[in-house]
From TrEMBL:
Organism, as annotated: Amycolatopsis thermalba
Protein name, UniProt field: Amino acid permease
Matches recorded under InterPro entries: AA/rel_permease1
Keywords of the record: Membrane, Transmembrane, Transmembrane helix, Transport
Topology within the bilayer: Multi-pass membrane protein
Localization per record: Membrane
Amino acid sequence: MSTSNDHGLSEFGYRQSLDRSIGKFASFAAGVSYISILTGTFQLFYFGFGTGGPAYWWSWPMVFVGQIAVALCFAELAARYPVAGSVYNWSKRLAGRTTSWLAGWMMFTASVVTLASVVLAYQVTLPQLWPGFQLVGDGSGAHDFAISAVIWGAVLILFTTLVNAFGVKLMARINSIGVFIELIAAVLLVVILAVNVVRGPGVFVDTHGLGEGHTGGYAGVFLVAAIASAYVMYGFDTASSLGEETVNPRRTAPAAILRAVIASFVIGGLILLFAIMAAPDLSDPRLGTSAGGLQLIVLQVLGGPLGKVFLGCIVVAITVCALAVHTAGIRLMFAMARDNALPFGVRLARINAKTGTPVIPAILIGAVAVLILVVNIGTPEIFTAVTSVAVVMIYFAYLLVTVPMLVKRLRGGWPGRDAGGHFSLGRLGLPINIVAVLWGAGMAVNLAWPREQIYGSGPLRWMALMFIGLVAAIGLAWFRLRGRHRLGTLPEHQADRDNRLVDELS
């Protein structure tokens, strides 16, 4: 392993361009804020509960089992390759050029769509905090909610763009403070809900009769409701995507990835568990609507003033979640542009001398995310439609890492050379990798399935398949016709010869 001052970055042919200042907590906070316990659980509880009833809660541990398998694979990769744009750079070392480029392209596009979906959470929470936050109409109109959501989303994206443009230190400071507030609020919420339970655990076998008349019975309904849990537990690779800006990343990033997933599972699962047990009336139809949901339970159980304090904490969580998603997208775009793997790579990979961060990607990602919101402004199902597309694309991008990794294992090419004593799955690697692949493939198909309750009726039912197919086709067409012929680290980002020699001798 390198002993040079670039923390081994020259081993991969790159010079240290980004500002390396992120410590252990900030790295952990990056993963936690992307997953965002409060954002995810509160944004789509209404959909999970309204679709599957109290028994939908079992999708939470189901998703955790699948995602912890993926996270374990990623932790092993993070110890080997602490480089920006995690998924892209990991796939580049596991598979061919086309596969790795597609992994990066899909993950980057997914990050932009995810940013658009996360900022919609403002609309789910703010009007319940104060009615005046409903910016269009009173919320009862066909498009009141969607239009107001787009306006609030654009405001939040402007904020995350400005913060990211000013540099990683400001981003990390805001993110760490926000995550600290989120974790404290989440733990307190678990305790308060726990002492206010009004029913026993038997409620979690109650399906509210929602499987009747549905193809596949309750199992079919349960798979639809699982999107509410699947939406929360991903993005943990962000801790590694910031590897070039993290101190001692080979040790810090793997631990941050696993801690982020486990903490989110435990705290988020308890919030959902006790909220359902503490809800005054589970038959209240508002619990299954975006205007009620988990926020309504908190207000009912905690009372107005205290409940609104916790809703304020949720707003903080949404803010830092959007910030982390935007940051991850910027690092992925930078990583690909540095390899000249994107059009206008020289400009996209340029680091601002004052802020030490890529400014153009920050602005471009923010602008495209707002455009996605505007295009979908007339879609009543805007929350579930945009969110589902984002989750499917993330799962697909993850598969472009876990599948090549599994192939390497089966051929005896992984783990290969010792990782310097850092995180390794050892003999458990193969079964865990198999679970990660099967889980990712199964959930990608499940979430992309053209269901009316997710994507709406008519042509929109095929939104996920059409959008993902179009993105992949356009990207691959450019790469195969032009991009692959120009791949190579840009001269200004190549490692110094002296550092390369240190890596080769160490």
